[in-house]
Amino acid sequence: MGWACVAPLQQALAVVGDDIAWLSAAERERWAGFSGIQRRRQFVAGRWLARRLLAHVGAGAAELGLEPDGRCSAPPPWRVSISHSGDWIGVAVAAAGLAGLDLQVENPGRDWRALAAFAGLQPCPDPAYFYRHWTLAEAWLKAHPDIHSLSALRGLRWQPDAVGPAWHGQVGDLHWAFVGAAAPEWVTGLLPQSLRPAAGEGWAPLSVA
């Protein structure tokens, strides 16, 4: 089973405040390596929300790790995935299963056609189609620690499948995708204005080159 929480970034930052002493030494080193203030804020909010969500679903005060590629890790059997886009921060966790979450806010100035070609996505006729397949691919990448780059998924294709293992949905201009054993259970009590999206559409990978 998997759980996810998606909330406004500012709501998390208002709770966290300026104190980062609760971060591990490795996390503080990673935080210091970001030159942009916004990226530092996203990092802190994501790690804080990951701890809160893990505690909420019964993992206790799980000590989070930091993989060389920047991914967040949790003690077995827990898996954790963090994503952020625009004004949103999201975390997904699962016990003894896959957990991959990706968020993407539609950006009118983004050259989605060029990104689709770069990522090797199947032909995308419009932005909504692009964002669906982009988030699905990113969530698949995050759920599989043995895949280290989106370029490794250039041959990935998707087909509708009610049982997943991937789900996609949209709330306004925010697209979300989750990869796991089942569609995520949305947790809304951790932060004000957390989202409870409608049930997403199920998708399954058709092929990986």
Please characterize this protein's 3D structure:
The chain is an alpha+beta fold. It has a single domain, classed as Ribosomal Protein L22, Chain A. Helices cover 29% and strands 28% of the residues. It is built from 5 helices and 11 strands, in the order βαααβββββααβββββ. The strands form 3 sheets. It has a 5-stranded antiparallel beta sheet with strand order 6-9-8-11-7, with helices on one face. Strands 4-5-1-10 form a 4-stranded mixed beta sheet. Helix 1 crosses helix 3 (37-56) and helix 4 (112-119) packs parallel to helix 5 (127-143). The protein starts with a strand and ends with a strand. The model has no long low-confidence stretch (mean pLDDT 92).
Sum up the structure in keywords.
five-stranded antiparallel sheet; globular; 11 strands; four-stranded mixed sheet; Ribosomal Protein L22, Chain A; 209 residues; 5 helices; alpha+beta
Quote the distance from N terminus to C terminus.
29 Å
Q: By CATH's scheme, which homologous superfamily applies?
A: 4'-phosphopantetheinyl transferase domain
**Fraction in beta strands:** 25-35%
* CATH architecture call: Alpha-Beta Complex
Strand order within the widest beta sheet: 6-9-8-11-7
Number of helices: 5
Number of domains: 1
**What would the CATH topology be?**
Ribosomal Protein L22, Chain A
Protein name: 4'-phosphopantetheinyl transferase N-terminal domain-containing protein
Organism: Roseateles saccharophilus
